[in-house]
């Protein structure tokens, strides 16, 4: 395992073109509700990715990144990363020739944003 993490390859996110962070405000009263909402939002993204012929995966290891790394990646102060996931072309499938548009929307109680990996 040490050898896998000692390379320049992306062994965590598999070189996926899109890493999505679903984040919510730090709020002890509503934390469980925000987590449930985040999971439901992720599930809808997984289903839509599948419908578009794309692959998706929950990236639990990303939850172990330090807070300073998450801030550098764009997670705002006062928000918690709830669900990190990736979306990309699957290795062994045919992707439909459809346009894909990802929309980022935020509100005072829920924030979802996208980070494009190069």
Give a structural overview.
The chain is an alpha+beta fold and 118 residues long. The protein has one domain (15-116): NADH Oxidase. The chain is 27% helix and 25% strand. It is built from three helices and four strands. The protein has helices at residues 2-5, 31-51, 67-73, and strands spanning 18-25, 54-58, 79-89, 111-116. It has a four-stranded antiparallel beta sheet with strand order 2-3-1-4, with helices on one face. It is flat, with a radius of gyration of 15 Å.
**CATH topology, which one?**
NADH Oxidase
* Radius of gyration from the alpha-carbon trace, in angstroms: 15 Å
Strand residues, percent: 25-35%
How confident overall, as mean pLDDT?
Answer: 75
Distance between the termini: 25 Å
**How many distinct folded domains?**
1
Largest sheet: 4 strands, antiparallel
User: CATH homologous superfamily - what is it?
Assistant: NADH Oxidase
Provide the structure class.
alpha+beta
Shape: flat
CATH class: Alpha Beta
Q: Can you write the helix and strand succession as a string?
A: HEHEHEE
| Helix content bin | 25-40%
Strand arrangement in the largest pleated sheet = 2-3-1-4
Helix tally? 3
CATH architecture level-2 label = 3-Layer(aba) Sandwich
Q: How many β-strand stretches?
A: 4
Low-confidence stretches: 93-98, 100-118
């Amino acid at each position: 395992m040490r050898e896998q993490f000692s390379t320049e390859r992306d062994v965590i996110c598999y070189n996926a073109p899109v890493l999505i962070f679903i984040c919510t405000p730090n709020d002890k009263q509503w934390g469980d509700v925000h987590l449930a909402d985040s999971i439901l939002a992720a599930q809808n993204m997984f289903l839509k990715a599948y419908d578009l012929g794309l692959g998706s995966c929950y990236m639990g290891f990303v939850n172990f990144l330090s807070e300073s790394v998450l801030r550098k990646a764009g997670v705002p102060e006062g928000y918690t990363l709830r669900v990190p996931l990736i979306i990309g072309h699957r290795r062994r499938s045919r992707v439909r020739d459809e346009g894909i548009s990802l929309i980022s929307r935020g509100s005072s109680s829920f924030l979802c944003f996208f980070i494009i990996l190069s």
